Each structure stands twice: as C-alpha cells, then as structure tokens.
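Archive transcription. Copying these from loose printouts into the bound notebook so they stop getting lost. Printout 1 of 2:
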Amino acid sequence: MEQPNLITQLTALAHTLEPSHPQAPALLRWAILHIESQNEALEEARQEWASEEAERLRLEQAAYIAQEAIETALAAIKYGQRPPAPEIGRDMVGHINIMAGHGDLDYLNKSGNSIRHVDLREKPPRKKKANAGVTGAELAKRPR
C-alpha cells in the first residue's frame, strides 16, 4: 500500500481541523507552500549537483588522458637519449692541457697562465727539495 505524501496529509489535516481551529488551515497552508518551495529548491540543488558531478568526472577523465599523453611523450624523449657518460670531462683533459701549453688564448687567463689545466696525477706531487730552483752553477759555488 502506497503511503500518502506529506502535502496530502497536511491538506487532509487542514480540512479536519477547520471547524474546531479556524487559524489552523492558514498555518497548514503556509506549511504546505513552504514544503513545496523547499522541494523545488531541493530538486534544483540535486540537478545542479548532478551536472557538477558530471563536469567533475569529465574533467577528471580529461586530466587522466593528458597525464597519459605527457607520460608517453616523456618516455619517448627518454628513450631517444643516450645515458650520460660518467667521465666525459676527462676525455678532453689531454686536449685542454696541450692547448694551454701551446698558449692558445682560449685556455689562458689575463696574465698568460693556464686557467684550465687539469692535474691528472693519481698521487699527490712530492714535496720540493730545499735546493729546488737553484741552478747548477750556484750549487758548484757552494762549499761542501
């Protein structure tokens, strides 16, 4: 058995109470109008929510498709690149040192010294002797 809706029940109650309570039908009519107004507002809110939900789902789908496209493009870019050489700078060290030794201006600073010399020694250089920088003639003059 179908249950009657609230507006039908309030209308029946207004007719029942009219002889004994003359103000009741006016109050119940106001309640009926207010309920109908609220039902319309609720229906509009439901329709708006449904359209917003559909729009959100559409945007989510578009964002997902865009993300997939970006990831695919990034994978294609990465696939085309070769891995970086671990010590690519050391391959050119000999050339840099030779060019600086020959006095190429690209490899010298303002004072004429090499600015790009790369020390390739694996061990630290030995300490200089006390006689370093003394010529053979000066050594010969020194007393023994």
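Printout 2 of 2:
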Amino acid sequence: MRDVDLRGIRNRLPHGSIAKIAEETGLSVQTVSNIFNKGWYPQHRGDVIARAIDIIKSTYPDEQVLEDAEELNLTTSHAFRVPYKRKVSASVNGAGSIGLLGVLALFGIVAAVIYLIKPEWFQSLLSMFKRPVSLTPEEVLAIKVKDSTLGTV
C-alpha cells in the first residue's frame, strides 16, 4: 500500500485552501491543518485529500492549455507553482516605528524651524536643558532638606 504525501499536497495548495476545505467538509481549520501536517483523523483524511486534489487540479493548468501555450511559444523552463505565503514581521509590513534616527532627525528639523521663526524661543528652549553653574546657599539647603526627608522611613 502506498502512502499519500500529505505535506506535498498541502504545499501545492493555493493560499486560503485550508479554510475552503474546512468549510466544505464541515471541519475546523485546525482539524484540516492537522490532517495535512500530522496525518491525524483517518476518518476524515480521504474526504480532505479528495477536495485538496480537486483544488490543485482546478488551480494548475491542464495538459491542453500547456500544449496550446507550447505551440504559441509561450512556455518557460520554470515550473508553474503557487508561491508559499511568507510570514512577515510587523516592522516589515509598515507597523514598525521610525526608530531613534528618525526621532533625532525630526527633533533637528523642529529645532531648525523654531530657530528660523523665533530665535528667542530657541534660546529659551536650550536654557531649559542647561544646568545651573552655581547654586545659592538657600538652594543647597533646600536640596539637602529634601534629600534627608526622602531617606527617612
């Protein structure tokens, strides 16, 4: 008795065929997927394989179409196949962030526009990031008092 190459059949199915087979057979998509991947559910295997072969036959061209294409010199040495669906990560399909370099570039552009429009705003913006060079005795005392109250429990 010969075995059927279930993974080979699955690899030739076009995208969405597992869901279509599941709908036609009344099985869940997970059950149909397990039949192809693991060979489970022998009671449903025949029906699922028959429907998969029907889909493959309807997807790939028949011999008459290939002969007509050959007569018109429209054939190629490359095999006709349905491409595999690739898993795409979030950053590749456009859902990713712009990254640190993009943020820095955006910050630079905004700073340049602020400097061109109102130079005094730019100076006040820069002064927010500067540390004071010297502290008054009152400021030093206030910092020490704050630190001492934070350290006690």
